[in-house]
Design brief:
Blueprint lengths: L47 H6 L23 H4 L16 E2 L4 H10 L4 E6 L4 E7 H10 L7 H9 L18 E2 L4 H11 L3 E5 L5 E6 H11 L4 H7 L16 E3 L4 H10 L4 E5 L5 E6 L18 H9 L6 E2 L5 H11 L3 E5 L5 E6 H11 L1
Parallel strand pairs: 1-2, 4-5, 7-8, 10-11
Antiparallel strand pairs: 2-3, 5-6, 8-9, 11-12
Helix pairs in contact: 6-12, 7-11, 7-12
């Protein structure tokens, strides 16, 4: 039976070397690395930037930000983006794993806490060495099954490997910490300059206070955009007007493509999601890192099954979330947050994908137009 996509909200190898032996990549001066000169973290009182602009930031016992306390005259895009990014995630209690924990253990930790990634701490070096996510772990295990007659046995052994061997294999989660006094604007710039989806927030002792992700930033912008003319203006523009309707980095696979090939494509293209199309090229689904949550040694994948069967029978039993070039940026972001995805595919009148809009694209537009 042919499946049709739905639009949510609107109609119209070998194991990689240990990270312990790697030198950390160069980081921008605004980042807060163990080896870099440390910025003094403000832990009390109002940040100087907010005092200078007259913004009254309400801080409860857990330092959360309440935009309802702002004066409308103060809610310019510039002032809003000067809020400390920690205020967006101050209720968070980060889950940390040890670099010697097994892949199987880390997968269970991610599943039990309903999260997709966690920072990896090395007791040998007394520092955090990476962020690891479910896509890293699955791609690592898949790599062990290639070129061997005992692939399942290799994968079983892979579940017992230390997690640091899998860190960074998908190339999607380099570890770039930022200081707790970093503003929202600085965090957005780091998301874009570094090409990362998550930024650990650390204090002056290098302890992780929280992890801010692109979704946190998007939800914050959606909450305040109605009171912020500059952001409202951008959110009212169509994807076509913003130049987001078509994208060269769109990756599609036929529904009958083997699952193992799709994992290879995700790692090769350094992406977290791809579009699934039928024989006519129509969008019928998508595969993303979130679909891999809950994978364990006991329910390990049949890598020879088709990606279409995996997505519909094993995951969410729903089709891809899509939009048209005429949808506004606001509509696209509301679709993504409602559907709990980090990207929305853009289709033409024949429901054939012509592009994909990610949270990175949306944040870039906001920064460019502020």
């Amino acid at each position: 039976m042919q499946r049709s996509p739905i639009s949510v909200g609107f109609a119209p190898g070998s194991s990689p070397p240990s990270l312990l032996s790697r030198s950390p990549p160069p980081a921008p001066a605004s980042l807060f690395l163990s080896e870099a000169p440390r910025r003094e973290a403000k832990t009390s009182g109002q940040p100087d930037e907010l005092k200078a602009t007259g913004i009254l930031q309400r801080r409860s016992n857990n330092n959360t930000f309440d935009e309802t306390e702002q004066s409308k005259d103060d809610l310019s895009c510039e002032n809003i983006l000067r809020i400390p990014v920690l205020a967006l995630v101050s209720n968070q209690c980060p889950i940390v794993v040890q670099h010697t924990d097994s892949v199987a253990h880390v997968l269970k930790v991610l599943q039990d806490n309903k999260i997709l990634s966690a920072p990896v701490y090395s007791s040998e070096t007394d520092r955090f060495i990476a962020l690891v996510d479910v896509l890293d772990l699955v791609v690592f295990l898949v790599s062990l099954s290639q070129g061997t007659d005992t692939s399942m046995e290799q994968i079983r052994r892979g579940f017992q490997r230390p997690v640091y061997q899998a860190c960074g294999i998908s190339r999607n989660n380099p570890f770039y910490p930022i200081a707790e006094c970093t503003t929202v604007h600085e965090a957005l710039e780091n998301f874009l300059a570094l090409g990362v989806h998550r930024l650990p927030i650390v204090d002056s002792c290098n302890r992780i206070r929280a992890i801010v992700c692109q979704l946190d930033a998007i939800c914050f912008l959606l909450r305040v955009e109605g009171q912020t003319p500059e952001i409202t203006k951008v959110f009212n523009l169509s994807l076509r007007a913003l130049g987001l309707a078509c994208k060269q980095t769109l990756v599609t696979v036929p529904a009958d493509e083997a699952l193992i090939s799709c994992f290879a494509l995700l790692a090769l293209n350094k992406i977290c999601g791809l579009a699934i199309v039928d024989k006519t090229g129509r969008l019928v689904g998508s595969l993303c890192a979130m679909d891999l949550a809950g994978i364990t040694e006991e329910n390990w994948l049949d890598l020879s099954m088709s990606v279409g069967d995996f997505v519909y029978s094993k995951v969410r039993q729903q089709s891809a979330i899509f939009c048209k070039p005429e949808h506004t940026l606001r509509q696209m972001l509301q679709m993504a947050t409602t559907g709990r995805v980090h990207r929305v595919f853009v289709v033409d009148d024949d429901l054939k994908p012509v592009g994909v809009v990610t949270f990175t694209d949306a944040l870039r537009v906001v920064v460019r137009h502020q």
